[in-house]
Amino acid sequence: MTAVIEVSGLTKRYGGQAAVDGISFHVDQGEIFGILGPNGAGKTTAVECLEGLRRRDGGEVRILGLDPKTDVHRLYQRIGVQLQESQLQDKLKVREALELYASFYPDPADWRELLERWGLAAKAGTRFGKLSGGQKQRLFIALALVGNPEVVFLDELTAGLDPGARRATWDLISKVRAGGVTVVLVSHFMDEVEELCDRVAILERGRIAALDTPAGLVDSAGGEYRMRFRPMAPLDEQSLGVLPGVTTVSRRGEQVTVTGTGDFPAAVTAELARRQVLAADLRIEGRSLDSAYVALTGRSMDT
Amino acid sequence: MTGFGRLAFVESKLFLREKAALLGVFGLPVALVIGFGLIPGFGDPQKGLSNQIGTEYIASVSVAIVLATLGLTGVPMVIGQYRERGVLRRLGVTPVRPLTLLAADVTVWAASAIISAALVVAVARVAYHVPAPHATGWFIVSVVLGIASLLAVGLLSAAVSSTARGAAGIGWLLFFPNMFLAGVYLPSEEMSSTMRQIGNFTPLGSALHAVRDSWMGIDPRPEYLGIMAAWALVAGALAARFFRWDKA
Predict the structure, then answer these.
(1) Residues 6+ apart with CB under 8 A from B180
(2) CB of A85 within 8 Å of any CB in chain B?
(3) Residue A303 covered by a domain
(4) Of A129, A245, B58, B77, which is most buried with the most CB atoms under 10 A?
C-alpha cells in the first residue's frame, strides 16, 4: 500500500483559536477514509486545507506527492471535490454543467456515462435551479468524478438524500473505490461511515480523538451493551448474573435485559440452552459505531 | 476550446436565458429610440440640446443607459450571486481559476453592450434616418471606454461587498445618481454649472458627453476620455485588490 495522502501536524488557526490542532494521518491508495465528528469539530476546515481552499498555518500535507499550498494547480487536475453548500448557475442545464466541467480536465470521464450512472439521464436538459435537493447532490458527486480523479473528496456525501438514494449512493461510491480511486469522506452520519469506510478518524475540537477501522473503534471503545429476550419458560433471571462478562440483569414484565461486556451473549445463550429455556425476540443492541463514538468522545453526536 | 472559451460560450448562453437582462440591454434602448422618435419635430436639431437632433440625442442616452444598467446593476448582482452561491468556489477546485469565469463574464457583457450600441445606431438610422455617428472611430473609443469604466465600477461594488444583496444594493445606489448627474434624466444643458461639472467627472457623464460629441462629428474632449480611462484603471485595480472569492 502506498500513501496517497500524508498529513502531519496540520494546524489551522482563526484569530488565535485553533480550528484544526496538529492532526496527523495518512490515507492509502484505494482506501475509503472517513473523517467523522460533530459540527464545528474542524472536519471541513481540515479537508479544505487538503483541497487547497484554505492555507494551513502549520504542519505538512502531501496529496499524490503534491503540496496543496504550492502545487495546487497540478493537484486540481488529479483530484475531484464535492463541496458542502455550493451551487451552480440557476439556468445552467445538467448536461451543460457536466460537459463544461469535463472540458476543464486533461483526461475526463465520459460525462454521458456519469449522467446514466448517477440517475440524472432524465434530467439532462433540466436547469440546475429546477433540480431537487437530491438531484443537485448527485450532480455534484458526478461533477467531482468527471475529471477522472485519483483522489476524491466528498463533504457530506448524502446530505439531502432520502434513505433509498443514500443506499444507492453508498453502492456507487464502493464501485468508485473498486476502480482504484481513493476516497476521503467527511460525514457526521455514523451509519454511512460504518458502511463505507475502511478507516475512520474521529475529530473533536480540532484534534483526532481516535483513528481506526470502524470495527476497531467499536472494540476499543469496549463499553457495555445490551441483550434482550423473552424467556419461553420460567427462568430465575438472577442466576444469569454470575456468568462471565455480565454486569446487570433486570426484568420488566416478560422481558429480560442483560447488560455486559465482551462475549457475554454467548455465555447467556449457552446457559439458557442448558436450562432448556427458549429465548424469543432475542435482540443485541449497542454494538455500533454510535455507542463507540459516545464512549470515545464522552458525548453524543448531536451535542 | 480553452477553459475561457468554454466559459464564455456557456455564460453567453446563460445571458440569453435571462429575459429581464435581454429586455434591459437590447429591448429598452430600442424602445426609447423608437418611442421618442414618434414625437413630432424630434428629428430636427433641438435648441436646448446644443442643436443636436432629438433622436440622435435619445440614441446617445440609450447607449449610456445600457452601460449603466450592465455595469452598475448587472455586474454586481451576477458576481455577488456567483460568490454567495459558491459558483466561484466550486470552480476554484478545478484546473480552471475562478478569475477565468469573471473574465468570461466581462467579455460577454462588453460584447452585449457593443451589440446593443450597434443596434441603437441601426434602429435610429433605419427608423428615423439618423445618420450613423460622424466620428465613427471616436464613437467606438467612447463606447469601449464607457464599457470599461462602468464594468470596473460594477466589479468594485461586487468586490467590496460581502453579500449578493449588498453588492446589488451598492450598484443601485450608484445607478440613480449616476444616471441623473450624467444627464440621462435631464440634459446636461439644463443643469446648473456645478452639477454639470460634477457630472463630467462621473464615468457615465463623460461617456454620454463623448458619445454625443462623436455622434455629432465633434472630437470628444480628451478630458472625457481621460476620466473614463481613469475610472476604469482605478476602480479595476481596487476591485482586483479587494475582491473576495468566497463569502464571509
Answers:
(1) B186
(2) yes
(3) no
(4) B58
Cα-based distances in Å from A252 to A228, A237, A257? 11, 11, 8
Q: Within this chain, do residues A249 and A127 fall inside the same structural domain, yes or no?
A: no
Q: Closest approach of chain B CAs to the CA of A195, in angstroms?
A: 28
Closest chain B residue by Cα to residue A73? B95
User: Nearest CA of chain A to the CA of B3: how many Å?
Assistant: 6
Do A243 and A120 belong to one domain?
Answer: no
Q: What is the pLDDT of residue A303?
A: 43
Rounded Cα–Cα distance for residues A171 and A67 (Å): 31
Query: What is this structure's pTM?
Result: 0.85
**Mean pLDDT calculated for residue range A109-126:** 94
Can you tell me the distance from the alpha carbon of B11 to that of A92, in angstroms, rounded to the nearest whole number? 9
A153 and A13 in a common domain: yes
Q: State the cell numbers at A54.
A: 484554505
pLDDT (0 to 100) of residue B247:
73
User: Quick one: three-class SS letters along B225-246?
Assistant: HHHHHHHHHHHHHHHHHHCCCC
Q: How far is CA B193 from CA A216, B190, B196, B199, B206, in A?
A: 82, 9, 5, 10, 15
Q: Is residue A186 part of a domain?
A: yes
Q: Which of B6, B18, B89 sits opposite A103 (nearest CB)?
A: B6
Retrieve residue B19's grid coordinates. 429575459
How far is A133 from A161, CA to CA, in rounded Å? 7
Q: Is the domain of A150 the same as that of A208?
A: yes
Q: Give bridge partners of residue A61 from the DSSP assignment.
A: A7
Would residue A14 be called left, alpha or beta, if left means φ above 0 and alpha means ψ between -120 and 50 degrees? beta
- Give chain B's end-to-end CA distance (angstroms, integer): 34
Identify whether residues A52 and A192 lie together within a single domain.
Answer: yes
Nine-digit cell string for A120 = 440524472
Please write the tens of the pLDDT for every residue from A156-169: 888 878 888 888 88
Chain B: residue whose CA lies nearest to A85:
B86
Q: Up-side HSE of residue B216: CA atoms within 13 Å toward CB? A: 21
Task: CATH number of the domain at A278, please.
Answer: 3.30.70.100
Is residue A302 domain-resident?
no
Please indicate, yes or no, whether residues A215 and A197 belong to a single structural domain of this protein: yes
- Beta strand A79-82 with A151-155 is parallel
Beta bridge partners of A13: A18
**Domain that includes residue A254, residue range:** 220-297
- Contact residues of B toward A, CB < 8 A: 1, 3, 6-7, 10, 13-14, 17-18, 82, 85-87, 89-90, 92-96
Nearest CA in chain B to A90: B14
Domain count, chain A: 2
Which residue, among B17, B19, B83, B90, would best test binding to A if mutated, counting the most A CBs under 10 Å from its CB?
Answer: B90
Specify whether the CB–CB gap between A3 and A37 falls below 8 A: no
Q: What's the pLDDT tens digit per position in A1-22?
A: 678 999 999 999 998 889 999 9
ipTM, two decimals: 0.89
